[in-house]
Specification:
The protein is of the alpha+beta class. 18% of the residues lie in helices and 31% in strands. The structure holds nickel (II) ion.
Length: 164
């Protein structure tokens, strides 16, 4: 496993559409391992492959308090979304900043795991927010496009915001 460099907002790679993964190869497994390590090291709750410069439809998420429940989503898609939540959101590609974004409060998504098996996952609140945020990265979108009002510095927030 190895840490990868997180690309920052303004890098072209973050504005591109990612390609589907056709086959789970050893390189894909290594990429996923590295993405998890990189996300945990940065204290993030999610990371998408383009954030480490790889234009493939892969995201990793872990919103658990102990950071011990990794979710790997390959070729993910949202199949249901409902409700609404409005709150601060951040991104590891825009360190130290947060902004208010409205997202669905509940989503159901379908993805492939590292065994190549399709599965479905449902999430509410932070998990729903993380899934929406990370999937946007796969289509070259960042949360700043959806921010209501101005970005703020995290040190000005009362609570630490999660970075995705
Ligand atoms: Ni992000």
């Amino acid at each position: 496993m190895a840490l990868r460099t997180i690309r920052e907002y303004g890098d072209d790679v973050l504005a591109k559409r990612c390609k589907e993964v056709k086959e789970i190869t050893p390189r894909i497994r290594e990429l996923v391992d590295d993405m998890l390590e990189t996300m945990y090291e940065a204290n993030g709750v999610g990371l998408a492959a383009p954030q480490v410069g790889i234009l493939k439809r892969i995201v990793v998420i872990d919103v658990s308090p102990e950071a011990d429940q990794p979710i790997v989503m390959i070729n993910p898609e949202i199949i249901e979304a409902d409700g609404e939540q409005t709150g601060y959101e951040g991104c590891l590609s825009l360190p130290g900043k947060s902004g208010i974004v409205t997202r669905p409060n509940h989503v159901k998504a379908r993805a492939m795991d590292l065994e190549g098996k399709e599965y479905e996952i449902e999430g509410e609140e932070l998990l729903a927010r993380a899934i929406c945020h990370e999937l946007d990265h796969l289509d070259g979108h960042m949360y700043v496009e959806k921010v209501e009002g101005d970005l703020v510095n995290n040190e000005d927030l009362v609570d630490d915001s999660d970075e995705e």
